[in-house]
Amino acid sequence: MDKVEDKISIRQFFIIYVIGVSASIIRILPIYSSFFAKEATWISAIVAVIPVCILIYILYKIMRNGKDESLADSFENILGKPIAKIFMTMYLILSIILLTFRIRYFAEKCMTALFTNVQIEFFVISILFVVYLIAKKNIQGFARFSEFMWIPLIVFTVGVFLISIPDIKISNIYPVTIYDTKNILMGVLPIISVFVYIPCMLFLGDKVSKKEEMFKVGKKYMLMAVIIAVSIIFTTIGVLGYNLSQDMIQPYFSSLKNIELFTVIERVEALAITFWLVTDIVLIITSVYVVTTLIKKIFNLPNRSNLVSPTLFLVYVLSIFIASNIFEIEDYSRGLGAIIYIAFGTILPIIIYLIGKLRKVID
Predict the structure, then answer these.
(1) SS3 at position 362
(2) Are 198 and 20 in contact (CB under 8 A)?
(3) What confidence score (pLDDT) does residue 7 get?
C-alpha cells in the first residue's frame, strides 16, 4: 500500500475535479443548458447539485464508505474480477474518447483565439508535450499546482460576476415561474453530463487519502462548483441573453467584451483566457492519469508512467482524425456525447450500487 505522504488528500482530489469541470462549465452551460432552461439556466445549475451529491453518496457507498482503495477494487468486490475488468474496459474506452475530444477541442480553441493561420497539429503536439512532462510524474506535484490555482480561479470568476452586475439585464434572467419547471429540469441534464466525470476520477482512488471523508468533503466542493457555474451563467446569459449565447462558440469570453468596466480595464480578457487554458489543461492531464491508471489495472502492469508515451501517441492520432472542425465536436458534445456521459456517470454506478446491495457487499 502507498504511504499517506505518497497520496493526495481528498480535498486536493475535489479541487482537481472542480477545476477540470470548470472547463466544461464555461463551454457547455451558456450554450446547451440555456437551450432548454432559457432565462432559468441559473436555477438549473443550482438544482443540478442535488443529483450530483446523490451520485457522490452512491459512489461513496460503492467504495464501502471509502474503505476500498479505488473504484476498480470496488468493482471487483461487487462484480468479481472478470466482469469488473469488462466494466473497467468500458470506462477506459470512454476515457480515451473523452481525452481525444478534449485535446482536439483545446487545440481548436487555441487556433481560434490565438493563431488562426497555424495548423491544428502544432497545437495538438504542443499540449501533448506539456501533458507528457507532467503526467510522467506522480500526481502529488500536479495536485499542488491545482491547489495553487484554486483560489485565484474562484476569486476571478466571482469577481467578474460582481463587476458584471451593472451590465446584467434583468429580462435575460427573469421572469421565472412555476411553468418553467419542465425547462429547468431539462436544463439540468447538460449540467449533469458535465459533473459526472467523478466516477472516472475515482479510479485514481488508490492515490487519495482519507476517502472516508469523500461525501462530506464532496458536498462542500460541489457547492463551490455551483458558485462557479452560477457566476458564469449570470455573467454570460445575464449580459448577452440566452438567444445570443447559443449562437456563439465561446459566449463567456464574448460577454466580457460587453461589460462596460472592462472597456477601461485592460488585459481582463487575456486573464480570462489564461484561466480557461489552465482549467482545460487540468482536465486533460487528469484524463491522462485516469487512462494510464485504468490500463495498468486492467492488464496488471507494474508501472503507470511507462504508459504515458503510447497513450499520448494514440490520442494524437485519434485527435487529428476524430473531427474536421470545432462544429463537429460541438455536435458530438450536444448529442451522443452527453447521453454517453450520463449513462456512464450515473446509470452504470446506480446499477452497480444495486447489485452490491443485492449481494450484500454494500451496507
Answers:
(1) coil
(2) no
(3) 87
Of 192, 250, 183, residue with least CA distance to 40: 183
pLDDT at residue 166 greater than cutoff 60: yes
Q: How many whole angstroms separate alpha carbon 346 and alpha carbon 291?
A: 19
Q: Which residue has the cell 495536485?
A: 143
What residue spans define the domains of the chain?
4-358
Farthest-apart Cα atoms in the chain, separation: 64
Q: Which residue, 302, 352, 357, is CA-closest to 88? A: 352
State mean pLDDT over 302-331: 88
**Cis preceding linkage at 175, omega within 30:** yes
pLDDT at 150: 94
How far apart (Å, rounded) are the C-alpha atoms in residues 138 and 151? 23
pLDDT given at position 248: 83
Domain 4-358 fold = Amino acid/polyamine transporter I (1.20.1740)
Instruction: Give the residue from 151, 103, 78 showing the smallest Cα distance to 360.
Output: 78
